[in-house]
Design brief:
With 131 residues, the protein is mainly alpha-helical. The chain is built from seven helices and two strands; from the N terminus they run ααααααββα. It has one domain.
Length: 131
């Protein structure tokens, strides 16, 4: 039986290690590595920060999906403590972005979290409970 060593590495460092892959995550890793001087700060926060950055750069949907795939793979290789911390940071980012959506109603101003954010929150909370 092979024991897998769990890690405490930061996301961008783990992603740099994926440059040799022949899939979308590898392509993302190579692109991030090429732009590391300008992008590395964004990786020290949350996946959502970098996702916002990719949207501003008008990155294709496939690149954004590769980022999400990479982030979930990254969480799987982390120690329990580090994984919890990363998931909690991501939950906070998702809620923060969800609360940016405001709607007026008869009862006043409502903060609205769209279905995509709700589904992501469910997935994050489920993963947190599994750890």
């Amino acid at each position: 039986m092979v024991k897998i060593m769990k890690r405490r590495v930061e996301f961008y460092m783990w992603l740099f290690e994926q440059r040799g892959r022949k899939d979308d995550v590898g392509a993302l890793a190579r692109d991030v590595y090429e732009h590391r001087d300008e992008d590395v700060e964004r990786f020290s926060r949350t996946m959502h920060d970098y996702k916002d950055y990719l949207k501003k750069r008008r990155a294709p949907e496939a690149v954004q999906k590769a980022l999400e795939q990479a982030w979930w793979e990254y969480v799987d290789v982390l120690t329990e403590e580090k994984a919890r911390r990363e998931i909690l940071k991501e939950i906070a980012a998702v809620v923060d972005r969800g609360l940016e959506s405001i709607e007026d109603s008869e009862k006043g101003v409502l903060h609205v979290i769209d279905n995509d954010h709700v589904n992501l929150l469910k997935r994050l909370l489920q993963r947190l409970n599994e750890i």
